[in-house]
Design a protein that fits this description.
The chain has about 200 residues and is mostly beta strands. The chain has a 4-stranded parallel beta sheet, with no helix packed on it. It is globular, with a radius of gyration of 16 Å. The two termini are about 25 Å apart.
């Protein structure tokens, strides 16, 4: 539930079982501010999200799980929330490599920005590798995450994103943030400037 700039509270369990690989990929020749997302929320989505997310909990024949973010200000996430910009900034993704110049991407503010608190367990299993990668090529301010929250996805005051996270891979579990400014890759709740009292167990 949710989507681009879709404000409001969303709830419900999400369950996916695949007999092969699972691929979420937002890379490409263009595509700044694009996203791939398994969970409630989306890009510039405000509100509180809830419900369990279970991936490959009922199959013995799963393959790899791969989430790949794209260029500047994009993301790839397994969890509730998403990118929820609270301000307007420039990154230094331009060819000159200098911050705050005309060839950089301006990340516009979200006029509907509002905090929201996200809850629910996240259980992920794969017989193959698990790969989460942010920052395709020159992509800055991108992220890849297993967990609730996201870039500037702030919880309601005195609350926090929560729910047990369990990630089990039959091969490698690999997180790669990318090489540009303000990129990150993580397993856990929260994110870049995602304020709140986030908690619960991560395995």
């Amino acid at each position: 539930h949710g989507g681009y700039d879709a404000s409001g509270d969303h709830a419900g369990d999400i369950e996916i079982d695949a007999g092969g690989n699972i691929l979420f990929d937002t890379r490409g020749a263009s595509g700044d501010r694009s996203y791939v997302h398994l969970g409630h929320g989306g890009y510039l989505t405000s509100g509180s999200m809830s419900g369990a997310i279970r991936v490959n909990q009922n199959t013995a024949t799963s393959g790899a799980i791969t989430f790949l973010a794209g260029r500047s200000a994009s993301y790839a996430q397994l969890g509730h929330g998403g990118r929820n910009d609270a301000g307007s900034t420039r990154d230094n993704s331009g060819a000159d490599g200098v911050a705050n110049t005309s060839d950089d991407v301006r990340i516009e503010s979200n006029p509907d920005f509002a905090p929201g608190t996200h809850t629910g367990e996240i259980l992920v299993a794969a017989n193959g590798d698990i790969l989460f990668r942010g920052g395709f090529e020159a992509g800055g301010t991108t992220y890849a995450q297993i967990g609730h929250g996201g870039y500037q996805n702030i919880a309601i005051a005195n609350e926090g994103h929560s729910g047990t996270i369990e990630v089990v891979g039959g091969g490698s579990v690999f997180l790669d943030a990318g090489v540009r400014n303000n990129n990150y890759a993580m397993v856990g709740h929260g994110g870049f400037n995602a304020h709140g009292n986030h908690g619960d167990q991560t395995n």
